[in-house]
Amino acid sequence: SYITNWEKEYDIRPLETESIGFRFENILRVASEKSGRGVVVLIDEYDKPLLDVLEKDEELLDRNREILKAFYSVFKQTDAYLRFVFLTGVTKFSQISVFSGFNQPLDISMSEKYEALCGITEEELLSYFAEPIREMARSEDCSEKEMQQLLKQRYDGYHFGKTMKDVYNPFSLLNAFYNNDIRDYWFASGTPTYLIRLMN
């Protein structure tokens, strides 16, 4: 597990009786003390343990919720050791009630200040990815301009603020460049099954 790996990294020997929350708290404290700096915590899909069992197993859903509450409550207790915490997920914080034990997080999902944070802008695409665009255009036997349009059509269109600044899906775009092929990478990576159930 990640917790065990981090304990090894920082030479921490946990007791078998220690909870996952206590072990995480200890890792944050030791990491800060050893580095002399605040710890940055990045958690992708913070809500996945709940979404995976939603509408399937109510008992497991409740158990996972309690485990996450204990885990995330550590942030309040370790505030002095943290620089910042960044969580991503598909549900609103208030909808899943796992943060009652720590200061209410700030939802920046639709903040204009951060609207291009989780994507690749048009400017970035043209500045940093000119060579992969050229290679894809060659392999598809089209012009670079046509390839840019195709990439825009397939991977652009995400908006996270009132100004509606376009951002490209980085997962799909980078996979397209790596594979030199246009496909539905994001959908194929594992669309949450609960979304599909809700749409049916």
Automatic annotation (TrEMBL):
Residues 2-99 form the AAA-ATPase-like domain. Pfam families: AAA-ATPase_like. This is AAA-ATPase-like domain-containing protein.
